[in-house]
Amino acid sequence: MKICFLxxxxxxxxxxxxxxxxGFAASDIAVVERDETSRARLTERVGVQTHAALDAxxxxxxxxxxxxxxxQMREAIAPAAGKLTHxxxxxxxxxxxxxDLARWLGNYSRLVRCMPNTPALIGAGVTGLFADPSVSxxxxxxxxxxxxxxxxxxxxxxxxxxxxxxxxxxxGPAYVFHFIEAMEAAGVSMGFDTDTARKLAIGTVLGAxxxxxxxxxxxxxxxxxVTSKGxxxxxxxxxxxxxxxxxxxxxxxxAAAARGKALGDELGAD
Length: 270
Ligand SMILES: NC(=O)C1=CN([C@@H]2O[C@H](COP(=O)(O)OP(=O)(O)OC[C@H]3O[C@@H](n4cnc5c(N)ncnc54)[C@H](O)[C@@H]3O)[C@@H](O)[C@H]2O)C=CC1
Ligand SMILES: O=C(O)[C@@H]1CCC=N1
Hints:
This protein is an alpha/beta fold. The protein contains twelve helices and eight strands.
């Protein structure tokens, strides 16, 4: 099975890195990348074949993964319009809807929309998937196998939910990194050097996430176990409640989902 990525940026690199680590052959993976420096990096460091354009050689694949920015998509896929025959086309772009992609591809509907995230690079991603009804069960299995090689997969029931997946898990790693930044900064302001503060912050997030992932208890119960009455954790959580952390995170994730929907509206309008 030959897999071709259109766009060899951050997310394509994360997916390819994860796939190679899980035993996919570099010779089965190609990347269409317009930037020469990125092409050289992909050939030399990652070992995959590269193409400068989405030409016949690039389209000689079974799965075409669309991994350019949403704003770049229409122009980037134009060369494939009317030239697709059997390929399953998988878009990882935020916001863009299957109906618009199908139209841009010359009414080609063997399309799957999915939303991975960057921990795919270390096999710890989580991906939401939605397929056009015309995509066969066999083709869905193939796409699921690719994404499952880089982490967990979740099929969703309606395409509209993809904006929520994007807001929660697609963008989610950035929220966690931001929280780590905040913890690190607090550590530095209390006198630690950056390395020590970072080690304490990352170790804590990693350990807590692993504990939550392996536990039958809810995150709320695990939080309560850390929180002694009248103790240090309670003092910190009171400040977080005063700042309405739960509401703030909810509003942030709502904003991400709204932005995904707006991107789909804006870019699909013409
Ligand atoms: N970065 C992330 O965490 C995630 C990103 N996504 C989606 O993945 C897509 C890609 O995002 P990133 O990898 O972050 O972007 P990026 O900007 O790092 O990568 C896009 C790549 O496509 C190339 N490109 C643009 N137009 C091209 C064309 N016409 N032909 C060939 N190559 C072209 C660019 O040179 C660039 O290397 C976006 O649609 C985004 O919504 C989805 C999940 C997570
Ligand atoms: O920020 C973005 O638009 C993309 C989609 C999910 C993660 N990065």
